[in-house]
Amino acid sequence: MPEPLDPDMFDPLCPSDLSPIRVGDKWAAMIIRCLETGPRRFSELRGALRGVTAKVLTQSLRALERDGLITRTAHAGSTQRVEYELTPLGHSILEPMAAACSWAQQHWNELLDAREASSALGRTV
Questions:
Q1: Of 56, 33, 31, which is closest to residue 45 (Cα–Cα)?
Q2: Is the predicted pLDDT of residue 57 greater than 90, yes or no?
Q3: Long-range contacts of 88-95 (CB under 8 A, 24+ apart)
Q4: Range list of H helices, the chain
Q5: pTM score, two decimals?
Q6: Phi-psi sector, 38: left (phi>0), alpha (psi -120 to 50), beta
């Protein structure tokens, strides 16, 4: 069993928000990072991903499963539980994601400056 997820593992000002390289939707890369150390239950993921609604988390998990990056396993028993886990394909994306995060950290100030300049011009995406 992996260590519990740190509820503060994703700082609201984390460089991952600035990365122009996206895997899936807004939450997909963070879900993948949560599953990096082993399977997790829905409630564990939701605790670490503050700000995500249950509906959006479900949609993101289904998309990642459809793309072959995660598996969903339902365990029968007195209390039904569902776990999500990275597939070998999902594990293979961790290294490129780490490179993208490193790049965002190196260019943090430039990315922030570009966003501020765009906001000053009244441009939003």
A1: 31
A2: yes
A3: 90/32, 90/35, 90/64, 93/23, 93/32, 93/69, 94/32, 94/36
A4: 28-34, 42-48, 54-66, 88-92, 94-106, 108-120
A5: 0.76
A6: left
